[in-house]
Amino acid sequence: MKIESINGIGCNLINIKSSIVYKLMISIIFFTFIFSYQLRCGLLGDKIGGLNIVGLALIILLFLLYFNNMDKKYMILVYVVNMCVFISAIYSNKSIYKGFVVSGYFTIPLILIGINLKKNLFIEFTNKYIKVLNILMIIITLMGILDIATNQRLMVFVSKFMTSKTQELINTQIDASIANYRMYSLMGHPLFNTQLYLMFYTININYTRYFNKILDTRIVTFITILGIVLTKSKSGMILLVICLLVQHAKKIKIRNFIISFLAIIFLFFSGIFNNTIERFDGSLTSGRNEMWDLIQQSNMYPIKVFSGYGLGATFRYNDIIKDASSAFEYPLRMFSFEIGMLPSILIFSCLLYPILKLIRRRQYSLAIAYGIIFSDVNTYNGLSLQSDNMIILCLFIVTILNISNYTLKIKERSGQSI
Which UniProt keyword terms apply here (predicted)? Predict the structure, then answer.
């Protein structure tokens, strides 16, 4: 009786712990996707609302509570990265406070990648995460359509509750023609919206492939095509085509590719592609590499190995050379300039760890899915800006990795290839 009683208490404690972990992870989703960076800054101001303090506190609490279920090798790497970046940030910014700020934006979120969820937690969390992302992307798409219908008046109104920078950018395209329109949203810039659409597409396709369907694949495909067309992202269009070609399961690949092709043809003749096509006539990097060459020639502020020029230095450079910040609109360059080359490489080692793990496991569909998102986040500077972008990327990665973990267990039990 005593043994049974002890076992019962142990099971109850495990269930309570699992419930707390689940609630912590759902709360992180809420304070990142719902009470988002844009909304926080709009309501509380950039200084108070910028850093996701609640989200970061939840990540640290999750780390302390669930440490035994984390990837220990990866967590050693994260510890080294956090220490190196923290020290570099203090030296680069001449401020201990700024050291904590840099860690909060860019390295503490990396903890999420190391979480190995147990079966019940995995199913509950993944379902909730995908459903929240699905609802968010449907709302963003509908708002984009309504914004066009109202001559951009909808987002002008919504932008009053967003950052001053986003509000300024939205106001510049009032009454723009559909060919020149680029879709801003509740989450911010068109390029970040492109990233969200690609995440929405790849996570739904792979969850359907390995488990079950949450949202019809045809709806997912159509929303993604329409959304990326509205964002007018050149790299996004290229990555979308790759998604359509390689991410569908074999049974539905041909059918969905035909549907996708017809949808693109329809949108092409509607004139909505005109601006995107015109943008392909210029440099794919939109002048970033040309500015980089100019910066390199001037050699005024060469990139340093162990430290940088401080948080926000990229934009202060504009006071010396006009539009100099455009040269740093790639995360690795911007990180290197602001916190140093070595700390930047360490951050990227954490982001490359998952894809190496997936390739080693021969889970190529998941590796391609993450590879697409990793490629996209490296085409613009969103990841290196002071925002929730790193948390959002890490939530996607932990979902992909736990799909990998769970399918690997199924494979080991059944002796079949996934």
Answer: Membrane, Transmembrane, Transmembrane helix
